[in-house]
Amino acid sequence: MPNTFELIASSTVGSGGAASIDFTSIPSTFTDLAVYIAVRGSASAGRGYVNASINGVTTNRTWRWLVGYDSNLVSSASGTNDTFGSIPCATATASTFSNVMGYFPNYASSNNKSFSVDSTAENNSASTWMNFLLAGLWSNSSAISSLSFYPDSGTFVQYSTAYLYGVKNA
Amino acid sequence: MPNNPTRIEINCETGVESIIELTDAEVAELAYQAELAAEKKAEEEAQAQANAAAKAALLDRLGITADEAKLLLA
């Protein structure tokens, strides 16, 4: 890890849970952004998704993924929604949290913003699990100044965490 | 204690973390999104089951096993 990898901000969800974790006023002084999300959803399901909005919007997004879930392995056509990572939910193995790593290179440039995600839902189950690699694009020339992460259903439970890092290439 | 769910907002310039109660409209949107998520999961499961059934039918028609099909594609 380069010594220019710097923690910008982090958050741990308290006892009441949280509907989202929002990083605002992200400085544009780094080259790339990296986010590490270890969360668990409250929805009564084995797995769910952590979704993301960029600068408060979910539009102009496309992505493709290589996803393994249950007994399936799929390289899927492009999605257009706000899917970002996979997370364990209420019926997944107790006290397990997601392992979602997202990377946003050149997030402050005036070009469209690509991003990639490596995601594991963490569930000791043969029938309800999900891992994927996702390549996404946000077609917008604005610098990324805010990132919000939220479950597709329910809330994030206590002890869920999100860490946002800035990376400089020099 | 807030009545509605809360969200966490971290201002990266100041480092200040705020716990903000969702408005009723945001709670309604949350419920709507949960419904959409449930529909999406149901579609995924139905698609996976359809794919598995189509795959099994094709293998049956060809008279080969899944492992033999993998060998053909290797």
Q: Layout of SSEs?
A:
The complex is a heterodimer of chains A (170) and B (74).
Chain A: E1 5-12, E2 21-24, E3 32-38, E4 47-54, E5 61-69, E6 72-79, E7 83-88, E8 99-105, E9 113-120, E10 130-138, E11 147-151, E12 161-167
Antiparallel strand pairs in A: 1-12, 2-11, 3-8, 3-12, 4-7, 4-11, 5-6, 5-10, 8-9, 9-10
Chain B: E1 6-11, E2 17-21, H1 24-62, H2 66-73
Describe the structure.
The complex is a heterodimer of chains A (170) and B (74). The two termini of chain A are 13 Å apart. The mean pLDDT of chain A is 93. Chain A contains no helices and twelve strands. Chain A has 170 residues and is an all-beta fold. In chain A, the strands form two sheets. An eight-stranded antiparallel β-sheet of chain A has the order 1-12-3-8-9-10-5-6, with no helix packed on it. A four-stranded antiparallel β-sheet of chain A has the order 2-11-4-7, with no helix packed on it. Chain A has one domain: Jelly Rolls (Sandwich), CATH 2.60.120. Helices cover 0% and strands 51% of the residues of chain A. The termini of chain B are far apart. With 74 residues, chain B is of the alpha+beta class. Chain B has one domain (6-73). Chain B has helices at 24-62, 66-73, and strands at 6-11, 17-21. Chain A binds chain B through residues 8-11, 13-14, 16-27, 43, 45, 48-49, 69-72, 150, 152-155, 164, and chain B through 1-2, 5-15, 17, 19, 22, 26, 30, 33-34, 36-38, 40-41, 44, 48, 51-52.
